[in-house]
# Entry
Amino acid sequence: MREHNIKMMINKKKACLYSREEYIVPYGMPFRLMFYSQSESHCHCHDFQELVIILGGSAIHETEERDYPISAGDVFIIRKEKLHRYTATRKLKLANIMFDFETLDINWEKLHDIPGYTALFETEPKLRDRNHFKSKHTLNTAQLNEVSILLQRMHRETEEKSPGWIMMSQTLLQELFIMLARSYSTTAKIQSQKMVRLTRMMQFIEKNYAKDITRDRIMREGMTSNAVGTRIFKELLGKSPFEYLIQTRTRHAAELLKNTDKSISDIAYECGFHDSNYFSLQFKKATGLPPRDFAKRHRTFQ
# Structure
């Protein structure tokens, strides 16, 4: 690991930054699809997201934290400003979709209703290094063929530019997102199933953190037992369901302290704490400051 870190520190000094102004905007679309027969690449990062679908071959995907083997059928998101490169490539062919969540005209709220979408596009990338990429999505042969056909349709639209091509291209991209989300939701891989279950439980907590919710109710949302669900939290997040609930409540409380002039007791109650003293204790534990001091330091208005 130490040798890996030294190598990536050296590469970071030579890394290129790819910008959406250069790689997406000039092509008249809010996203860009490219196909590569990828050889070894130099170290780089970008100010947009990438959806990578490995169509054939294999390689090592190097990041600042770890190296991961990748091969045909693997699907993963590369987050903004994530330093990475491909090495040890063997007949590597991939489809690369460059996009920015903020500029795509897509119904994100409806996509988030599919557990596999949030798990694949948000939770897994955030937890990838901790999880050693064990929860990556791998399409089977039939699924990869189906995805490849859809990618070719997208490519034809962007090449031919027939009337309505931008709308059609975004519709096909949304179809691709749904296809990948559904396949991740129903994957047979145990580690990927854990990621989907964790995501369902995290989404439930995010929507209901202000209510009195029990561990049993959280586990039902993840369709798992208390023992298994708690192990999933510990393994993938490094904290218990209760610790994650408190973290979520204090995060929302911090936003209210920064952006409103509500009282400490009102904010505590609004974020699911029914005892302002207990809230103050948990908030200081999480942020290093009592709520009142945090508000004085970080409030965005006078």
About this structure: The first helix runs from residue 2 to 14.
